[in-house]
Design a protein that fits this description.
There is one protein chain. The protein is an all-alpha fold. It has one domain. Helix 4 packs antiparallel against helix 8, helix 7 packs antiparallel against helix 10 and helix 7 packs parallel to helix 11.
């Protein structure tokens, strides 16, 4: 199965590049600020959320920069949310093209994950700008050698998002209401993922444990430990944490591939 996927990937690599290029250009078409929105949006969201949750709800991260804490979570969550939402409608949104020529259908959700990935890389610029600014206030905050491990968290995030995207793209072909259902799911998921608050604030140990099983928590917390450090002063996650992040991403990716491959031949009947 993987050999066939790699052969098709290499064969249709040019088409994939064209889809990514098209989507990236359409995203900023007739936009005055264009790509600058990728830099401004996470910063503006960080400022709004920090103002609301830090000043009104009194959320805090003792000894750590709350701005960097929120920004790290936002950057990673925004990638997952935007990529999975766009990928969900990518197959039935291209039925006119699928009906004309043969191509591997997984290329559409994959292209969405890649084009949003370009924006994700751009958002790392304001993230590091905030880290540099806040490092003047917090001694434990700096850009150190441990940041070389951050791409691992981003790769795990990408594979997890791709797996979820393949499942959503498949289900939405047969159930168009999935677009609305998933909107509710992501809203709930957002609040169950410690983006604006510290999971240590959760008073119920059972609930806190269940929330830690959330793959998005794993990836975000992995990145936060490298950037901000943990309560013991360490910056590099344990080997078990590496395995948990990689294992969860791989399981979801394989599930997404299996489900998509199982149902893709029936897509044509639901155009």
């Amino acid at each position: 199965m993987f050999k066939k996927i790699m052969i098709n990937f290499n064969k249709y690599r040019f088409l994939l590049m064209q889809l990514v290029s098209r989507d990236f250009k359409l995203k900023y078409k007739r936009s005055v600020l264009g790509v600058l929105w990728s830099l401004l949006y996470p910063v503006l969201m960080m400022l709004v959320m920090s103002a609301v949750f830090q000043n009104i709800f009194k959320f805090s991260t003792p000894g750590k920069s709350y701005l960097v804490y929120v920004m790290t979570g936002l950057v990673m969550w925004n990638y997952f949310s935007e990529a999975s939402n766009l990928a969900m409608s990518s197959v039935f949104g291209n039925f006119s093209l699928i009906n004309k020529v043969y191509m591997p259908k997984y290329i559409f959700p994959l292209s969405k994950c890649l084009v949003v990935g370009i924006n994700f890389l751009l958002t790392l610029i304001p993230l590091y700008a905030v880290i540099l600014i806040e490092s003047t206030k917090y001694e434990n905050l700096s850009i150190n050698i441990y940041h070389l491990a951050l791409p691992y968290a981003y790769i795990c995030l990408f594979f997890f998002t791709l797996g979820v995207s393949l499942i959503l793209a498949c289900v939405s072909v047969f159930l168009r209401d999935m677009v609305y259902i998933y909107g509710i799911v992501t809203t709930i998921w957002t609040y169950l993922t410690p983006i604006m608050y510290d999971i240590n604030m959760i008073g119920n140990p059972t609930l806190a444990f269940l929330m830690k099983l959330n793959p998005m928590y794993l990836y975000i917390n992995f990145a936060r430990q490298i950037i901000l450090g943990d309560q013991n002063g360490g910056y590099l996650p344990s080997g078990q944490y590496f395995l948990a992040c990689g294992g969860s991403a791989l399981i979801v990716l394989l599930a997404g591939i299996a489900i998509f491959k199982w149902k893709q031949d029936k897509f044509i009947y639901y155009t």
